Amino acid sequence: MAEATRLTTDNLPPQQAALAWRDWMATLFDGLESDLYGDTGFDGHLHTAWAGDVVLTQLEANRHRVIRRPRTARAGAQHYLKIVAPWQGQALVQQHGRQAVVQPGGWAIYDTTGSYEVANPQRSRHLIVRVPTSQLAERGLHLPTLMGRVVGGHAGISRVALDAMRSTYNELPSMTPEAARGAGRLIGELVCLSLQELAGQGPGVVLQEAFKDRIRAYIAQHLRDPALTIERMAQGLNCSKRHLHNAFADADETLAEHILRRRLQACMDEMRNPDCRHRTISEIAFSWGFSSGAYFSRVFRAQVGVSPTEYRVGVVGQSRLGLELAWVGCQTK
Hints:
Elements: E1 4-8, H1 14-28, E2 33-35, E3 44-51, E4 54-61, E5 64-68, H2 70-75, E6 80-88, E7 91-95, E8 98-102, E9 107-111, E10 116-120, E11 124-132, E12 149-152, H3 156-171, H4 177-199, H5 203-221, H6 230-237, H7 241-247, H8 255-272, H9 281-287, H10 293-304, H11 308-331
């Protein structure tokens, strides 16, 4: 039987459950930060199993997002490509200025050696697969251009890869270690074939994705500017407004929604950052392009579910409780 480990918040008090989840994310995934959108209670479950060098984790949890900073990405002991394949809910993956929105039946891929963010805005159940980068090292793939993208899952070799990942996870308890290692190698091969197919898509698809990357890069560069509009973007990118809208026609959010979400996430990051505790919520909001405190509060509550003040108080309270628990732990040793 292949080895496995299980972690659950079932028997923990609500506030300790949230802290435990953050600790598990940091420990299991080399310093990965977890943000619970200001929620004080949390319900989460992790089941991890190994198929040779390939690591498969079923994650079921309330809404949350995870963030990998550049410093922790560089410090990671093992280099993996990471795959998220939802069974329930959706995942929004950001890496290299790109965003991939993946639904049940699909999978997206990103690189743990670089910074990234994955948002799970609703309760979700995902299969997380980590494939050592070394398995694809000699395949001639330019990985940075393929990361932060939805690979597929609905048809073709990417569907075969998804089926292999899911069935391997489900059958690992009845596999011998040798069989598990073979299944891991197969997953690596199918992921590689899927990426080769993605890299070989037609020129039209490649140009469209490249244009989306330019749009996202422009937004990231001007995100703090309250005058960032579709008209300004069209001028800056030397294209029509219609061309901009068409580029995101197949996305799950409009360009305006994309800008709003990026600004809200930037504000949430600063509200969580101890180095920014001297700044008021209004100062943070205005610094990220919001020109009205009332509008910021309204859209923040609509997207996050709590007010900016409640979010900030919740984050600070959880941090203080973590320090108190750590102090108590030191005293009892």
